[in-house]
Amino acid sequence: MGGHQGMAGAGRDEVAGMVLGAWDEFLARAGSVDLDRRSRLPGWRAHDICVHLGCWDDHAALADLIASARSGGRGTPPDPDAVNARVTAAHRDASREEVLAALRRNREATTRYLHEEPTELDTAPTVSVVGRLPLLSVVLGQAYELAVHGLDLVSCGAEPPSAAVLQSGLAALTDVTGALAASTGIRGRVTLATPDGGWGFAADGNGWQVHRVPAGVVEGPAVEGAADLLLDAASGRVNPVPAAARRRLKVHDVGGLLQLAPIVQQVPGIPGGPILQLAARTVGGAGGVVGRLFGRGQ
Q: What is the pLDDT of residues 146-164, one digit of tens each?
């Protein structure tokens, strides 16, 4: 994986603060709620959310990713739904102490990677749930998951994620989208903009670069909205179309966003897919030709 490699190229110092900060905050939020409370995710309690983020004897996601990177990124991407179903079922009756300990183990595994593994692994490809990505980008992807699941825990009584964690989640989302754009051969740029600033990527034949965007700057293809809404839309927690109709989400340069259509076609479960589908709806409507390209029209 030569050329620019997004946040993996930025190095561990920047990524470590985002990921470990997100872990620390999520651990505090998880420790403050009743894990038996039902969440906004159908069929999932706070317990299940935390179980699938933990490190268990039968589920050590980071160790598997490191092993994949060491072997040259060979293998088939796992099915996240199948993995989640297996892990949550296996540990459905785990005690509160066991669940919180599993979360701490995953945080500790991330810390060990960032401090002990050779830096050459950061840009080595590993097989993630959305395909082959640099290992450090996948590690940063934890920040996206922790931000989204931090928002899920709000429905269980937790405090909302901080602005810093939401921005880290957006950085991870931007990085993965840029990586998939580059791997698909797409040349273009996209920004996720919030009132507090945001993140953008630019992809070309030499990889992808990720950059912070100052507050008030929205240039080129972009989706603009509150950070929590962008993450909820990207993860499929909310339908972005009504949010756009109410101007809670604003789409800029729809044509530029539509250049990312091949990503959604090749990786249907990509984080951020619903936002890209929003661009299709904006142009073609629910039954339009462009909408059908994304599988959303009838």
A: 999 999 999 999 999 999 9
Alpha helices (H) along 60-134: 61-70, 80-90, 96-116
pTM of the model: 0.90
**pLDDT level of residue 260 (50, 70, 90 thresholds):** confident
Rounded distance between C-alpha atoms, residue 278 and residue 21, angstroms = 31
Per domain, the residue ranges of the chain are: 4-170, 185-293
Q: What does the pLDDT read at residue 236? A: 87
Burial label, 225 (beta-carbon count in 10 A; 0-12, 13-18, 19+)? buried
**Which option is the CATH number for 4-170: 2.60.120.10, 1.10.10.10, 1.20.1250.20, 1.20.120.450?**
1.20.120.450
Is the domain spanning 185-293 CATH 3.20.20.370? The answer is no
